[in-house]
# Entry
Amino acid sequence: MTKVKVSIVGASGYTGGELLRLLLFHPNVEVKQVTSESYTGKFVHKIHPNLRKSTMMKFVSASELETCDLLFLSLPHNNSQNQIDEYKKLAPKIIDLSADFRLKNAHEYEKWYGHKHARPELLNEFVYGIPELHREEMKKANYISSAGCNATASILGLYPLFKNNLVEEDRTVIEVKVGSSEGGNKVNEGSHHPERSGVVRSYQPTQHRHTAEMLQEISFGKKIQIHFSATAIDMVRGLLATCHVFLKENLQEKDIWKVYRDAYGNEPFIRIVKENEGIFRYPEPKLLIGTNYCDIGFKKDDFSNRLVVISAIDNLMKGAAGQAVQAFNLMYGFDERTGLEFPGLHPI
Amino acid sequence: MTKVKVSIVGASGYTGGELLRLLLFHPNVEVKQVTSESYTGKFVHKIHPNLRKSTMMKFVSASELETCDLLFLSLPHNNSQNQIDEYKKLAPKIIDLSADFRLKNAHEYEKWYGHKHARPELLNEFVYGIPELHREEMKKANYISSAGCNATASILGLYPLFKNNLVEEDRTVIEVKVGSSEGGNKVNEGSHHPERSGVVRSYQPTQHRHTAEMLQEISFGKKIQIHFSATAIDMVRGLLATCHVFLKENLQEKDIWKVYRDAYGNEPFIRIVKENEGIFRYPEPKLLIGTNYCDIGFKKDDFSNRLVVISAIDNLMKGAAGQAVQAFNLMYGFDERTGLEFPGLHPI
Amino acid sequence: MTKVKVSIVGASGYTGGELLRLLLFHPNVEVKQVTSESYTGKFVHKIHPNLRKSTMMKFVSASELETCDLLFLSLPHNNSQNQIDEYKKLAPKIIDLSADFRLKNAHEYEKWYGHKHARPELLNEFVYGIPELHREEMKKANYISSAGCNATASILGLYPLFKNNLVEEDRTVIEVKVGSSEGGNKVNEGSHHPERSGVVRSYQPTQHRHTAEMLQEISFGKKIQIHFSATAIDMVRGLLATCHVFLKENLQEKDIWKVYRDAYGNEPFIRIVKENEGIFRYPEPKLLIGTNYCDIGFKKDDFSNRLVVISAIDNLMKGAAGQAVQAFNLMYGFDERTGLEFPGLHPI
Amino acid sequence: MTKVKVSIVGASGYTGGELLRLLLFHPNVEVKQVTSESYTGKFVHKIHPNLRKSTMMKFVSASELETCDLLFLSLPHNNSQNQIDEYKKLAPKIIDLSADFRLKNAHEYEKWYGHKHARPELLNEFVYGIPELHREEMKKANYISSAGCNATASILGLYPLFKNNLVEEDRTVIEVKVGSSEGGNKVNEGSHHPERSGVVRSYQPTQHRHTAEMLQEISFGKKIQIHFSATAIDMVRGLLATCHVFLKENLQEKDIWKVYRDAYGNEPFIRIVKENEGIFRYPEPKLLIGTNYCDIGFKKDDFSNRLVVISAIDNLMKGAAGQAVQAFNLMYGFDERTGLEFPGLHPI
# Structure
């Protein structure tokens, strides 16, 4: 079988490294080139030591990129929108993992990102990258913009509720707990181990940019509000979104079960996790390390109309590289699970 | 100076151990007896190894208790309400660290605890144990009921806002992140290290009992709602409460500053922590390990009327033993800070 | 292709769970039955939540075991030696992951395990389970006894040196740092998270039983001594052995490189890790989580004849389940790497 | 009582911060100035947030230093030896926490530090800073050079054995497990949380400089060898030294007990920790966080003449700031424990 030839632009970061790992083991892919300006000429396993003995590839400069079937862009925000024309010349298909082409509305982009978008006319060319919401579009897409990690967990947790118009529009509060890999591989004072270890650090209590994606994907034409906060805790990978929504009607837990089963019953990467006993009663991000699953659970408050929805992912997998490969599989008609079979470890 | 003779009933648990540590180094206290039924006759330092070389005390059985000036009760819930008459015979003053006498209303007790209170007529004899709210009552009190740890952080964070009628009554959402010491020293499957390490476990998404204390202390006669959740993370000590409240009026951050300064400007154990730069911008529980501080910060959402209040404590100190000693100091007219001077460590 | 039908006796523990995960995804295997006396009738994913959506198998009692091609025994020590006749009736091939059949010498067994072996006459029926040392025997074996995790890392680190008679016989000191999963899934006071978290606990400074396996495998007919200690640290999976050996001759690092390359140059699961720059200079167990690799590095002391050999594995993989599957592949003539391709994650 | 006026040169680092904390709460000390070139003019609590509400001091530049009674030097290595004349003019007494004046022999300094000492003639002016070994000299000293953290734990663990000529001279192997605070507060790639978290990193397998101090302090005129390695693990504070020594005579554990009791029975900051039951059988660094204790335990190998000595400290306390304050107390005739009473926490 002919393999799809792909290259990764920006492969020295954490997301780029995970993409590379997944693609090296993907049976339908040939990884052609991987770029890094800082490490040009170095073996990739010097930076991603887990790949020792798996590949002898070296980083090249982006200036050396050749044409290929599909480009993965895994660059800091703002790069894609400024260089998009060059990338389009290199490949007919692009999956961008930055935030540049996630929003459809240029005004919203400016509101949340604080500057004008460089290429607003292209915003609608990109399909927003959550397969569970945009599967059919992806099958025909040439350009996909992968979703933010916090947005992915939050949207997947709340989508069935907002879609079915079950929750009050303006009251949703989401608190995500995130690990240090979300901040990328650049050293800073806050990431210094003696300071970062053991923290419960309220790093973005308000106005997190991922909120804009959530509003775009689950408002369904209504004016809704999402009150989002992010707290950094002592973990490397993983993300738990605790979503507090308020039900319009007096639904029971069995009704909520039905809503989620109807929405996600056939999804290969979504599991409803809700047990009445044992120690694994709700989603737990550590069990998802290395997997592409999004685990979703919930609990109805007996004393009010609050429903707490709990959603967990591995931020570098379902929140980034894994989701991008899932979208890639859809674009090429491969089984959606190809290359994403790792079930996770226990204990870990 | 004559020292106050105190005994601790239930001194083998984590809270009892911390109480003992604080009291052994308190200049106005003589610790007379400490009880444990499981470890009767053993040196306390076999169970609390930090006290090696600090004391040669041994645990006695509660049946051997002699009279003293004040009894600290640090027992599992339900014990105090059933044995209170015996304890009253042993000492004219009591500080109870269990949940038994925190609520004033027996109906509320039954609603949240699921059974009738054994001695509802005594509920009003106890002063609720947060000194910042009940200082003057404590100075005259014989019986004090120490507050729950989650309640302490939440109440101290929100008290000035509710007192001044600044927030919408029914919309408050509180998410606390807690460590494993909150669960006590009894082994269980969920506390087994390979399972507990690295968790972000939604252990009580709704109906947490501490909610009842919050409602009691900050409703000020109104009907309010507090939507509380607790998530266990990989830490031993410490607690961060992230409180989402919604302002009735368009207040600015400088207005909020004033509210907190007015409320807590003279408090020895409350610090307003809010920096615009650096890595210590909001309260951080790890910096409070071993201290009696409650650090409070906040952030106003520019895009809505939400105010995020962030409140941190050491659950075993300001959330239990430290707060009890602070109350003790007030009861006896000692400087409130006596025995509680430890400022915490950095780095940690 | 006909698949090999295997069953796992004792599949509710950590090693049994990892075996099950590997075998479920092994292309040449059909997992027939998995036993647990405590969880008979329960879905395996209730105990191994990572397997949700991967299998709907349930635990059966060992009394319900049917015949199969190969039995994996993953039971507490002492069980295999007492029940071996029953197991032999169920399957013509057995891989035992307990310590029961690791030693060839019944006197050594008694010395280190403190009691007589139940079936000393069978000790020589089992091949000791490190493929790198016993590959050819395994290809013809019916019975394999998987090696201990500490022994595996230590033996693989030192084997080329002792084989080539390069080190002083009586001076080797080995210090392993181990995680909490090594202790299994049974709760105990020492594994309670508040006590176990953050420890550097000298849990077995002398007389560790795995020493006997090391002596057996690397003494090559000489009388040698291995001074072994194990320290538990705050991690779940992983093991680093720091081995201090003393060279007989004045070898340089390039000589040592050659010794290891000659020994392991073609090994699929051994990597020599030794860099002069960067942050990944020596083996690091966290990079091996979920993999079957043993990474080995070394450093010669410029001021003495000491050579420090550093060897890392995932104790549940190369130290248990992974190594057992590697042996299984050899027994059946499959590619040794089948089902063990996962390269590990970075960051983690 | 007149207080001793002290200043700290280099107070923005972790050791300087801990010194400041201890001295602010020391009843016989007035902290006059604290210097930092990077943070001149800033409140110290911006850098050491645990000191919020404890002091309103600001950092000054070293160029603004005024005369005082005693200077603490807490600077990177090499600074003290080059600036010592200036410091001597500022104060009649100096405690240097760098490595510059620890060694008495300039040749040894050059061997281990790789460059010539700038002021070899001054090396003998400084008393080596372990009070348990040099108490009487300290009482008369004007200049003290605080010991290295790894050296402190190792020396205190082995001193009684070497002093009494009980162990073979050339066979000692020491493996220390260290936390990230030992590396100081400067950010680097290896300290980035996603890379540093969870490591068991062999950061200095051979030729660690602290070895030179050990040789100086415990050789007692003989030619001895110490084979030292350091492994970084996932903790912030704390250090455990596992020391493997080989006994010349057939001593029993009760004999070893006697050796340690004779040596340390009256020491305020040394505890012999060795229990036959329970979970606190050997020294555990996490129990020492914030304390000045050195806990020492041991285990005799039944199968050889090896004795394993286990020694734990808080590297920033007994290994740095705490030990310096202990020395300070001796210089001034204060009770050695003054300002160092904190007993540590449990659980932690």
Observations:
- The first helix of chain C runs from residue 14 to 24.
